[in-house]
Design goal:
The complex is a heterodimer. By secondary structure, chain A is of the alpha/beta class. Helices cover 43% and strands 14% of the residues of chain A. Chain A is globular, with a radius of gyration of 22 Å. Chain B has one domain (53-286): MetI-like (MetI-like fold, Orthogonal Bundle), CATH 1.10.3720. Classes of the chains: A alpha/beta, B mainly alpha. Chain A: It comes from Actinoplanes awajinensis subsp. mycoplanecinus.
Amino acid sequence: MFPTNKPDPSLLRGMTQRRLGRRDALRLGGVSALGAFLAACGVEGKGKPQASVAPDAVEKFWAGKAQNGKLDFANWPLYMDPKKPEIAKFTAKTGIKVNYQEVIQEMGPWFAKVQPQLSAKQSIGFDLMVITNSIQFGQFRDAGFLAPLDHSKLPNYAANAGKAYAQESFDMGNVFSIPWASGITGIAYDRKKTGRDITKLADLWDPAFKGKVGMFSDTQELANFGLLAAGLKPGDSGEEEWKKAAAKLKEQKDAGIVRNYYDQSYVDALGKGEVWLTQAWSGDIFQKNVSDGTDFQFIIPEEGGTIWTDNFTIPVTAANPVDAIMMMDFFYEVENAASLAEYINYVCPVPAAQEQIKKDAATKTGEDKALLEKLATSPLVFPGEADYAKLHYYVDFNTAEEQQGFQSIFEPITLS
Amino acid sequence: MNRVKRTLAPYLLVLPGGLWLLLFFVVPMVTMLSLSLQQGDVVNGYRFTGHWQNYVDAVTDYRTQMIRSLVYGLVTTVVLVVMSFPIAYWIAFYGGKRKSTYLFLLLLPFFVSFVLRTISWRQILTDDGMLLHPLKEAGLLSPGFHILGTSYAVIGGLVYNFLPFMVLPIYVALERIDSRVIEAAQDLYAVPATVFRKVVFPLALPGVFAGVLMTFVPASSDYVNSAVLGSSSTTMIGQVVQAQALANSNYPMASAISFTLMAVLLAGIFVYARLLGTEDVMKAAAR
């Protein structure tokens, strides 16, 4: 389900990264008095890239850590029923008070926001955070900002998680993370405004929708759609393909078709009629329709879509890591995984939840029953083989240079 | 003892402000200057290497946004002068007893957060919002018509947000005009237009000068209005700095762009001060 034949990127990064010593730096800069003074203001390294985790890292981190009865949890908006039934259940069961905050809107800004505290080995105010397998996931991991997980504290995960999740290239063997949910990036549209069905990526380039098309500002998300629209596969793309994709995206922008490049705010823009069709994350649209009574459609384009995973992680400076890991395991109880999926409509990492949802449906009547039955068979929550064939992962990078090259190709599109 | 006190007094007086400036202006500036010449990436840290290429990249990659920001700032400032002068004039000369009420009304919206006010404009102007929806329903506008996302929306937002910063200095300058000066002009048979051109306007110039300084600089480097009311075709340089610093963690590039912007704005202000010959104006106002 999650095929990867590339070596662990962190390993390669550790081997290929060019390290710049301070002495070299000064020689390069010319040691003037001003130079030396300015050099004193350097931003310290964020720790060495971790090629692998020390064998005793787990033991070292968890030694002496105890349950504190409280937990600060950072997540994305639209990622849980606003009434938070699962959190209430967790508190009732464990006595742990949870402060649940929807503070993550986009990976880049989130990393930039917490990075200074983490570098200074200070708490970021959260014990648990859900982060995407993005460029920033690698940065969090390589900078040593993520606590290694003690799998002896995750019995439900071991019993119930889809086995393929242990094979995801960004965190082989789930050393630092376990999935919260996976999701699909496709196209959402307002049928009343577009006046026709949207089926393919090419529709995002249709001049008839000038100024009414939304795209994502995240470079990985944007690049994947550019690549697929240009008939290229993200999986085996390199600089040449990226340039072609960027040209395709620039053409869309220069023709005035793109209204804006959005973070999570695309949902609002769609709701306000600012965009008629937009790049979108699968579950958001379902929830928007349920909570606001809208009738937006979500499709996986003919040319293909993107699949990603959002992951539970514990920042290394967390004050309550034991409470955090208990919460992680709690969501791998089949019942809780099912109740979460029933609300958020994202890909569920617990296969047994499908049966549970069917069971839940049997206890309901009328509209609720129909909704749950539809959900249990929805390819957006439990994708089948054929669905996976159409879905592509984010572009993988072997070196930091490669990743910076990628960024410099796609950033100018969103930033001009 | 007294003499020592007298010699020390000015230094003691300047001490709190001086320390403040040292701590909150000089230190960050030097840090930023250093950052702008560093190289590296966020995981391995940035090191000082005297990397001037950052400045070259800043100018070549983001020239468009820089020029766009200056144009927006300039248009905003001109619109502000044209709008603010009549307002300030009316309050100063015809406000009567209610002057302070009018000034209070002018400032009233600014008791609400800047970002919130800009977002409420978005609610009003949005494509299917209270303004455009009825017009579209009535068939007066095409369904695709939009105000948000255009330069007009961004400049409109800037004008709205900076209005008091232009009105108040002009008001203060006008308020200070001695009514006898105007009477004297009238006694010398000047028609109202001449009184305005030869007496009132020149005496109000220091206010205009201050207003321009207080609006052009922040308007050019603003990023909220473009982010909330604009689109990808109205990106201003402030947004680029914000994205580089807060989304990409590319602190050297963010700093290099900031310094370049500062240099351009300083040069602009310097030329402007020279052209307007403010020194004479200030002297006239002081008399």
